[in-house]
Records
---
Amino acid sequence: MDKLLIEGGARLAGEVAISGAKNAALPILCAALLTREPLTLTNVPRLNDIGTLLGLIGQMGVRIEREGDRVTLDASALDNPVAPYELVKTMRASILVLGPLVARCGEARVSLPGGCAIGARPVDQHIKGLQAMGAEVAVEHGYVHAVARRLKGARLFTDMVTVTGTENLMMAACLADGETVIENAAREPEVVDLANCLVAMGANISGAGTDVIRIRGVERLHGATHRVMPDRIETGTYLCAVAATGGEARLTGTSACYLDAVVDKLMDAGCEIVSERDAIHIKAPARLDAVNLRTSPYPAFPTDMQAQFMALNAIARGTAVIRETIFENRFMHAVELQRLGADIGIDGNTAVVRGVDRLQGATVMATDLRASASLVIAGLVAEDETVIERIYHLDRGYERLEAKLLALGARVRRIVQRVD
Ligand code: UD1
């Protein structure tokens, strides 16, 4: 398993290009299952999670052409609406094939994703929604087996705001008979990006980006071309990396409009941020101020940025209280940050972070995608050398991480370890 070696202390400066959003690309790739005509996507990031999803839909009979950031999917010969455990277990977002498969094929067998490091993460809301649309759903032998000759429009209400749940049901409703209303829908920009792609494919959707989405089902969808939105979490992570090192940088191919809550907190911490049309400029002070935060569904502060802000607070002036309200077990980075000298106390879903003057390099272990990002940020400011183990998590969600950090002046190196 590869490791990342970081020599801390370099001030990040320069320009970095932000990639397309993983969490938008994943559902949009699944949208290709809804039509017999080709769907072409651009700005698709080269990430392991994208490769996993392409592998999954490829074995269902989807033809895939990939060149650079462009992917063309042709699901005309889709003949195997099954998502096996071996492919689903590595990535929970695989559940996103469920809605499109039932809608297009009348049947789907999708392995339950199971738990993951950050919590139990059930899919009951996805199932409840499909049942309300008339699907017969059985959970047997670890698989969700859903059957519906044609889904029927329905009024759906999810018990909590769920991003992939909203996306799954929105895709399923596109081919249903009649109107579907999703209440308590997720408002995340990735839901809007998916809706935009579906509309380009001929779907009739209104209200995406609000908590009530209306979908009037159509007989069929057609091919389209769509550019995936920029990755707001990658953007936020680089803003934090620059902020931690007291640096100054311009992030291109992205926009602050998806990141109000994060930008606000960085400004509270003392950073100057200038938003341009397709870029963000950040200038950080020599030392940040601590900032309290509480994660919540969009447009509030994203859980996917919590770990990175814990790293910032670890070296800030003052004490910060961080509350995690989305996932029950999302503080695993705290113990690793402590190994670098951070002063963090955890009580249930609350972390109290007392800023220290300096962190010290050590060997730490990445436990999930965003936790790994927080360790990278801490390693960039820690004295001497930090070694991050199990960086396959980073490869799931950050395109060309070392190259981008090197371009900003970081001292990082990947140690490739072959497993024979
Ligand atoms: C998505 C994002 C992930 C982000 C998360 C929250 C993708 C591919 N992943 O994950 O990066 O951290 O949103 O912003 O877009 N829940 C249930 N039952 C369900 C569905 C969800 O209890 O059927 C719970 C979850 O356990 C969690 C909460 O609802 O506590 C929110 O989860 P959800 O929004 O569904 O997360 P994902 O869509 O999996």
---
Amino acid sequence: MPTFFEYIDVSLPVPIDRPFTYRLPETLRHRVAPGCRIIVPFGSRKLTGVILRAHNDPPSVTAKEALRLLDAEPVLEEKLLALGRWVADYYCAPLGEVLRSMAPLTGEVRRTRVWALTDKGHSVIRQLLIGEPGNDTAVDLLRLLEQRALSETTLERKFPGAKKLLKSLEKKGLIELEQNLAERDPMRAPAARLRVEFQGRPAEVKLTKQERELVAYLELHPGTHNLEELELLVKGASQAARAMARRNLLILKPEALTADTSWAKPRHDLNPEQQAAYDEIRKALDAHHYQTFLLRGVTGSGKTEVYLSAIEAALQLDRGALLLVPEIALTPAMAGQFHSRFGDQVAILHSAFNDSERAEQWRRLRSGLAKVGVGTRSAVFAPVANLGLIIVDEEHDQSYKQEETPRYNGRDVAIVRAREAKAVVVLGSATPSLESRYNVERGKSRLLELPVRVGDRPMPTVELIDMREEFLETRQNGLFSRKLIEAIGAKIESGEQTVLLMNRRGFSASVACRSCGERVQCVNCAVALTFHRRDNRLLCHYCNFAQRVPQVCPHCGSEHIYFLGSGSEKVEDELHRHLPRARIARLDRDTVTGKNRYEQILGGFREGNYDILVGTQMIAKGHDIPNVTLVGVVSGDIGLAMPDFRSAERAFQLLTQVAGRAGRHSLPGTVLIQTINPDHYAIRCAAEQDFGKFYEKELQFRRLMRYPPFCAMANIVVRAEKQEDALRMSGQIANLLGMPEEGIKVLGPAEAPVPRLKNEFRYQTLIKAISRPKLNELLKCLRQHALDDKWPATALVVDVDPMSLL
Ligand code: ADP
Ligand code: ZN
Ligand code: ZN
């Protein structure tokens, strides 16, 4: 092997799926290696790509010269490059885009100027202070920026003439221009994301009045503080702290990385069931070969303790470990639990971190300083050295699937990665996905069960309340049955707590016209707008478009507008009416605005500041609050009627998970599920907490209909702003798939269940195949056709193993 290379093949984040060859300048010829990032010219642009190969074979056409090498050492080592190739192939995604989403460092060199909300902007949008009449564009624009910073070009496109508006918002101090998204000063993160550490008043330094006030407060309240919370207590704290941090008078740290060890739980000796599961995992680790386990443990059976012990075992064997958790579960509390057990050996990886935060954690793992990676979906690519164990908690969770290119499932990638690394995988859940459970039958993984709760605590008793009967008896179409209200009232009397699930946010599900029957729809999407009373606005849950409630029907001009259905906001409101003395907290995407709001609300509930916690599916996951003895489900039916073959599975999982929040400690728990489908098997099995029975039923349905796991499936969506373009392209798809081979079934093309989304028309085609390779081949043909026919880059969506068909 020469140590001197003239050429490199580079993978670039472009739709054309092949490597590009570049010539190296003299200075770089002995410094490159596969997996390093490099900046190269591409057309009139400069792109960052990943080197796949360095060589001395002159290409047939003259190669352009590479510009700048970004890494002295590969960011993607050989095995991760190979994993990237697998992902690209299996999910039919361009390799360059896969590699870009794998290496969290790519953003470091992006130099775009983007508009971002200032702290003031964040708090204003939260309170919607600028709801002055005629100012709706400003609100919409701020709402958009609340999700992420955007370039002026993008904003201009969405809001023609935005330039002037941007200037005026900047003057008001609501937004600011960020020179460079990635290399930006971490101190410029929003206050909610920063934590203040103060070591004491430095001698002989001049402080402003604001700074003196801040110092006075910090001296009286030692410890670290979240900057957003400080701002509420000390006026101008955010500005003062930033100014002081610049002079090294105090330290500002990214908040999410500061694990909160006060949540640490005592270490438990494993009970016999946990021990038996652990022993199996340990044996596989010792044997040093690949094995997947499915750990099915009922809610409250102590799965976390098994994970912790397994990670300890891996570390003892001098191997690294990865723990993947669902998006919502990765909180400072959870991080704290791992820190208290494994100290600085833990690196926390969250897709919500900015690039430099992620890069920092990534480096700690790569250098071996940290040996345990804990993170959400994308952490499956973390460079853990000598990987021995991957745990996927709540393996059925939908957040493991990435809903943009590359559309990989972190759980499945984990299995592939482990197989290559000769590592052990543990998939844990109380409600495993059908696919994972079926893999046990197929001998692909081994089942470990924790059939009972720890400490002989009983499972909660579950009762279904038939809301049709309730209506017949009371002649009232209320949100709550008499039984549920009574039960909640009794819990308040006895000082116990209630969790109440309403899996839809907002106040009313939609607004309709009594004259013509039309619902008010989003201008960008073919979906009904949801009424949010706090903002007094109609909101699109798909694209965040917001508008006022119209005075007259936009279709027929009638004044008879009325509100239909209900959401979590209304549940809270009605509950106040029924139980005026109850202290109620609400947890949904409307109340969880900042990074720490989720923790704050949940923490407040845990400390007993509230009697009732109302919320969407957010309240169903993972937490363990001792005093919760009643779980109510306002409508067990939401989701059942979705046009998706997984709707029953989802409903079952959600109901079982939320029921599992009740009676986890010394007090026994009760669950009341209101429903109009009490005979539906998903609801019945959830009520009986019988996973086995649900699995058998659902498997029958899947087998009969040839849905996964009995086929390999892909969803093809064609989208375009003009309907005729979308139609033309989906017509071509129909032609290409016209004469399907044996073992392949094509459904569609047809209008997608949401036929218009974010201003694009959408047509979808489902492909079911008996053979995975055949499916893969077919999908590659489609993609090649899109390239040959010069479709816009975003027009064709290929979703392999789709989790959602909406
Ligand atoms: P799961 O994730 O299976 O629903 P958790 O891991 O949250 O359950 O455990 C439920 C509770 O039981 C937690 O409070 C945990 O600290 C406690 N626990 C776990 N294992 C044991 C044990 N062996 N003995 C006593 N308590 C335990
Ligand atoms: Zn009308
Ligand atoms: Zn919309």
